[in-house]
Amino acid sequence: MGIDLSDLRKLVDVCTLCGSCNSSCPVFEIELTEPYSPRGRINLIGELLKGNISDNEEMRELISVCLFCGYCQNSCSKGVDFRSIFSGYLSGTIHLDKD
Ligand code: SF4
Ligand code: SF4
């Protein structure tokens, strides 16, 4: 189960990396570093999909601390589907495709 890899790419590509969503994220509010922001997480997954970085425990930890609260999604004018992107990543879609 899980999202198809090409669909995951399309969802990630909607993000323009504007950063408007960052201030809505309760995790970012505590950590105050880009990798813990919604944009940072989307960007990490995008770079992984492009093959520019490799998946690792640190990245999985960064994504898995997302509360799936949806505040970032509500504040994004582009309608980036965070829940599907993060759950797609956590479901192992990227691993499965690369193996
Ligand atoms: S998810 Fe939306 S608000 Fe956040 S950086 Fe991407 S385009 Fe901007
Ligand atoms: S869904 Fe995740 S990334 Fe978005 S605001 Fe909530 S904790 Fe932050």
User: In this structure, how is the largest beta sheet organized?
Assistant: none
For the termini, the CA-CA separation is 16 Å
- CATH C-level class: Mainly Alpha
Question: What small molecules are bound in this structure?
Answer: iron/sulfur cluster
Q: Count the domains.
A: 1
Share of β-strand residues: under 5%
Helix content, binned percent: 55-70%
At the fold tier of CATH, the topology name is Fumarate Reductase Iron-sulfur Protein, Chain B, domain 2
| Quaternary structure classification | single chain
SS summary, helix count = 7
Average residue-wise pLDDT: 92
- What is the H level of CATH, i.e. the homologous superfamily? Alpha-helical ferredoxin
Tell me how many strands there are: 0
- CA radius of gyration: 12 Å
**Low-pLDDT regions:** none
